[in-house]
Fold:
Amino acid sequence: MMRKSFVAAIALLAWCAGAAHAQTEIQWWHSMGGALGDKVNELAAKFNASQSAYKVVPVFKGSYPESMTAAIAAFRAGNAPHILQVFEVGTATMMAAKGAVVPVAKIMKDADEPFNPKAYLPTVAGYYTDSRGNMLSFPFNSSTVVFYVNKDAFKKAGLDPNKAPRTWKELLAAAEKLKAAGQQCVYTTGWPAWMHIENFSAWHNVPIGTRENGMAGTDTEFRINSPLHVRHLTMLGDMAKKGLFTYAGRTNQAEAKFASGECAMLTSSTGAQANIRRSAKFDWSVNFIPYHDHVPGAPQNSIIGGASLWVMGGKTNNAYKGVAKFFSFLSKPEVQMDWHTSTGYVPITMAAYALTRKSGFYDKNPGADVAIKQLTYKPPTANSKGLRFGNYVQGREVIEEEMEGVFAGKKDAKSALDEAVKRGNEILRKFQAANKG
Amino acid sequence: MEKRVVFRSAWLPYALVAPQIAVTLVFFFWPAAQAVYYSFLLQDAFGLNTQFVGLRNFTDLFTDSHYLDSFKVTALFSVVVAASGIAVSLLLATMADRVVRGAFAYKTLLIWPYAVAPAIAGVLWAFLFAPSIGIITYFLRRFGVDWNWIIDGDQAMLLVVIAATWKQISYNFLFFLAGLQSIPRSLIEAAAIDGATPTRRFWTIIFPLLSPTTFFLLVVNIVYAFFDTFGVIDATTQGGPAGATQILVYKVYYDGVKAADLGSSSAQSVILMFIVVALTVVQFRFVERKVQY
Structure:
């Protein structure tokens, strides 16, 4: 009995080895849990069925920081995956790791796969392109921040539910009325730094940092203590004091507060829509994020969040060919449209956007195209095409820490932002020193 | 009469302790040496670029006011956790020691939390105290308390202290109970006959006789608060808001693992190593003198 199963095991092993010979495996580490993870598996299965030379194996590696940490450890140990999904704040770290990653543009060129960076939304492609115009990673899931309004709460407070506030002034006026009508939590936000510093700056066309928000070089410095930034954060601090703004945490905790009806207004990721659609028992709308109307030229355009796919170095040419083929597959408009409409992430190519529009999806799902309209509202400027700060996982945390000081009423906006700039710049200098080679 | 085993063989004693030494070398000394080595380096995340920077990681830390704040947070946190953990479990143990009926059930229930992993303990308390959906939050709101540890640093601190202490009470309880049961009944009875009140009996007889246990628990609890509470913090506040619950060991993890800054993280663990050595020396040299064995 024992011997039989042993022989069977050997046979199975041999068979597996044979199969692996015929097909080149491509490891893909990602951070898409739950329904998104199913969708990722579906994408890989479709690609695997479409040809027989390569097999993409998606592996869920936990949250964004977790999978990035895992990949860094794996790289140090010499067994990194072929493809790694990295969130947008990790971009600078990946870009600086020259020997560890292979630029996507090179992969595509070497494999003779057609690849045109111009096909992508400029705000998406720009985020992952170096200063010489080479696309370094492959944009995969991109989101942006939008403004959600509980229409029923607006109606109850005597406000026009079909007129979401467009400016912060209007938002304040609406907030006062909602509060007076007994709304316990009036306005809340997910991802405070992403919304109120990064997107806020892009939306008003002011720099987050020097050197084109760090995209032109690592010798960048934060500029988030400008009078406009101070004014905005002061306003939020005042709102918190008056009970018009409820702070919910650094990630997406605020989304649940909106979906449950506890909060009437929310700024957070487009990715929240799927959940809100499922659990909200009220009428709601998706809108552009508010702006300050005294700023000339505002609103500009918002910037993306989400993640891109990086190709790790040290693999065989054959495997890279497979990676290139897989990326070509992912770029197809119909694949993109399917991903966009089922996940809520924005379509990242113009062709996919056009195809989705033609399919009538936006007529059936009003609000689903707010994100892309906001991302492409005006052609992006040096201030609004994205950002690239070294060790920004740490940097963003520093900014959020200082913002929390203001929301708690312990600090004034000016000194908090000055401190954020000072501490943030120390992190940037350290990154610059560590990557000068 | 002293009982002592004497080894006649020259190598046998060494062979017997060898596994223990091997484990210590591999799991304690080697990582510790690596931490010291890395603390002098500046490296990018992937380890492609390494520079020797001398003491810069250390000087950076000591000029960073937030790192110094983390010391204060850690001191407050560990003193409160150790003190309240010991006080509450001593109270519970003295109570449980007196119970005659159902003593076994009480003891079992009190020991239970020890089997809960720190992360789970953190999640449990985080749920109870969750700012919008927590059941305790709901009651607090009725009493007019605005409970939101997401933004209120003091409340966040209170939350992690409660979660961390609750977890440790069982452990302390076990030791105190064992200590209490080893105190001769005759002593207490004699004092009672002499007319000493229960309170007086506790402070003049029981507490001094328990002092070895208390001292041992003090050392263990401080170490626990310094290191093992990591899971509780990671599962609840993650060091926030605004660094209000960022204890030293959490910052080591955050900077090293999440922010991929190995140099600073290693420097911090070296500092932490020194602190623990210093604390242990202090405890054994000064506090232990007050202990009666």
